[in-house]
Amino acid sequence: MSVYNQSVFQRGFGTFPLKGEVLAAAVRDAVEIGYRAFDTAQWYGNEADLGAVLSSLDIPRDNLLITTKVLPDNMVAARFMPSVEQSLRDLKLDVIDVLLLHWPPGDDPVEPSLELLQEAHRLGYARRVGVSNYTTAMMRKAVAVMDVPVTVNQVEFHPLLNQEKLLAASAETGIPLSSYCSIARGEIFKYPLLEEIGERHGKSAAQVTLRWILQKDVTMNTMSTRCANMRANFDIMDFSLNPEEMRQVDALTATGYRISNANVVSYAPTWD
Ligand SMILES: NC(=O)c1ccc[n+]([C@@H]2O[C@H](COP(=O)([O-])OP(=O)(O)OC[C@H]3O[C@@H](n4cnc5c(N)ncnc54)[C@H](OP(=O)(O)O)[C@@H]3O)[C@@H](O)[C@H]2O)c1
């Protein structure tokens, strides 16, 4: 059974680009609201801040799901395990709940980094392993290479980019998807349809967007520094979109809006 079957782990709290006291305050608020899944990465430079605040709170370890990601520059034999050991120390954990490869190496072969990831799992550094920003072809390679389940492919996913091809590959390979930039960093607010649908349900455009993501069978990550937004993003389990509303939101993907392009992240592969 997937760990994401637990409703509380379907709504992750992202930590990029938070650091220091801003991160600590946001995480304390998020925990108070009910978040138990936290997303970080070696790249974010905030694993130690996250480890410090979470360990200061009295949360039973099994109630937390902590995801971190290996920096692409560390995906070589000499640096991979030392970097994961550093993540464990910084996060103050004995084992990482979900360890991801943050980016593929552009369009280069993914096998060497997948083998290192598998080794980290074998060494007991991570309970579960997965990938991020993988294309459909890379998802197929991942299941072919790995002897352990690929727990997730974390990708940009929002109504302006509904990732139909990745969803089809998810059904084919059994690798679930998880979203980042779930509200497209605010870009979704330009589309009145989401607010109109929300009015019928007593919910906001952001809540409609996040509910749509969950109903696509995709778990979601959001980030906010404001309690009201954190609460709204978590409070999406008491309504559902009907098939017609799902189709209307699906149609927004025609905008083709994508944040993680190669001009933003040099590791970006050629997307499907
Ligand atoms: N795997 C990857 O390559 C990758 C890439 C990017 C991000 N991520 C992860 O995914 C997480 C989420 O993505 P993201 O933070 O980039 O994008 P996002 O969640 O789409 O947008 C975050 C922004 O939206 C605002 N916001 C949040 N909830 C809102 C609401 N209900 N109403 C209005 N504004 C709201 C926040 O501002 P306020 O603080 O003002 O609320 C924040 O500036 C990150 O924190 C990170 O953990 C992963």
Attribute tags:
TIM Barrel, globular, binds NADP nicotinamide-adenine-dinucleotide phosphate, alpha/beta, 272 residues, 8 strands, 40% helix
Q: Can you offer a commentary on this structure?
A:
40% of the residues lie in helices and 15% in strands. With 272 residues, the chain is of the alpha/beta class. It has a single domain (3-189, 217-225), classed as TIM Barrel (Alpha-Beta Barrel), CATH 3.20.20. Strands 1-2-3-4-5-6-7-8 form an 8-stranded parallel beta barrel, surrounded by 6 helices. Strand 3, helix 3 (77-91) and strand 4 form a beta-alpha-beta unit. The radius of gyration is 18 Å and the shape is globular. The site of NADP nicotinamide-adenine-dinucleotide phosphate has 25 residues, from strand 8 and helix 9.
Weakly predicted, low-confidence segments: none
CATH class group: Alpha Beta
Major sheet strand order? 1-2-3-4-5-6-7-8
CATH topology: TIM Barrel
Main sheet? 8 strands, parallel, barrel
Q: Return the structural class.
A: alpha/beta
Q: Averaging pLDDT over every residue, what do you get?
A: 97
CATH architecture: Alpha-Beta Barrel
Helix content estimate: 25-40%
Number of individual domains: 1
Q: What letter string, H or E per element, gives the SSE order?
A: EHEHEHEHEHEHEHHEHH
Bound molecules: NADP nicotinamide-adenine-dinucleotide phosphate
Task: Give a brief description.
This protein has one domain: NADP-dependent oxidoreductase domain (TIM Barrel). Helix content is 40%, strand content 15%.
